[in-house]
Amino acid sequence: MEVTATYSDDSTEKVNNYRIKVAPDGPLTPSDTSVTLTYEDKSTTQAITVNAIVCTKLEITKDPISTVFARGGTYDFTGLEVTATIEHQDEPKVLSTDEYTLTVGGKTIKDGDTVELDGAEASYPVTVSYKNQTDTFDIRVINGYKIEGENILYTEPTDEDNNFVRLKLSEDSGYLTEPSKNGTIRAVSGVADAEYASGKAYLGDLKNGNVIEFYFRSEVATTADISISAASGYLVKDDGNWTPEEMGDMQFNKTVTVTLNGTVANVPDDVILEGGTPEDVGGVNAMLWTNWKTVNFGTMEVKEGLNVVKFVVASEYTNCHNGSCAFNLDYLSVDFGA
Ligand SMILES: [Ca+2]
């Protein structure tokens, strides 16, 4: 807009915008039909039309990293990306978390809120809303525990400890009492691939013979469905420095023996941890370490007191550095059912 002042001597001057007072001076709304411009003691009025922000399409462009939550735990929608197409704007806009709302079961929720859903449904749709447009993604709620693979206990457990992981390099060695520094069986965190894991960490560098034990306490004898979130660690091709360029598929039951309180879990041959290339998983190499799949071990007889799900790594796979390799493990879920 250009504003010209005419002075008493008939001279004229283009007035700089910063010298003009504009009313209203806040954000405009569609009900504003004019603005008044004042310079010294003279005013002029300009008719305007304010278009409301009209969102024509809302799309979840990336799901949250983890869509499984334990009842009584907290929501964490890290990784969720919501993109809006807005009328009169050339580029779709990635919304910030405070611009959209999330609702599930009729309640508005946000990161850190307690999960109050009862787990009775196979999945719950979460609705993302922005300017009259919506999209949805599904979450699963466990009536039980979600034990992160990185929840490692390096001391003797006590009666107060619940939902923890213990590690041994082999059946006949002692439990690890400090984090591994030698690239064997360790919590992976603080690196790019860990950003794509629940809790931003996972259990990695599993080698043949390693023992991983997940413990949880139950107040009653009952049954529970047990599953893990795991990803292939079968590095087929890299850049020479462990940055994956291609990951191979792994048949899960050729990598590990799993026991539920001592009873061997039968995992069918068709449970495959899919590998892929960066193109397959969305152009991010780190995603190849964390291409998570759910592996179910069926129903476990749960004792009153401490229960253990034990993994003994016995992998047929050899990576491109001629080393033993198995899967990466994000978390284990214990679901007592609705
Ligand atoms: Ca994790």
What's the alpha carbon Rg, rounded to whole Å? 28 Å
End-to-end C-alpha gap: 64 Å
Structural class: mainly beta
The CATH architecture name of the largest domain reads: Sandwich
Q: In what order do the strands lie side by side in the largest sheet?
A: 7-13-12-10-11
| Strand and helix order | EEEEEEEEEEEEEEEEEEEEEEEEEHEEE
Question: How would you describe the overall organization of this protein?
Answer:
The chain is mostly beta strands and 338 residues long. The chain has three domains: 4-47, no CATH class; 55-142, Immunoglobulin-like; 144-335, Jelly Rolls, CATH 2.60.120. Helix content is 1%, strand content 44%. The protein contains one helix and 28 strands. It has a five-stranded mixed β-sheet, with no helix packed on it. A hairpin with a 2-residue loop joins strand 23 and strand 24 (263-264). The model has no long low-confidence stretch (mean pLDDT 93). It binds calcium ion. Calcium ion is lined by residues 148-150, 197-199, 201-202, 330-331.
Write the layout of secondary structure elements.
Blueprint: E1 4-6, E2 12-14, E3 21-23, E4 34-39, E5 42-47, E6 55-62, E7 68-70, E8 81-86, E9 93-94, E10 101-104, E11 107-109, E12 124-130, E13 133-142, E14 144-148, E15 164-168, E16 186-189, E17 201-204, E18 211-218, E19 222-232, E20 235-238, E21 244-247, E22 250-251, E23 256-260, E24 263-264, E25 272-273, H1 278-281, E26 293-302, E27 305-313, E28 327-335
This protein binds calcium ion (CA).
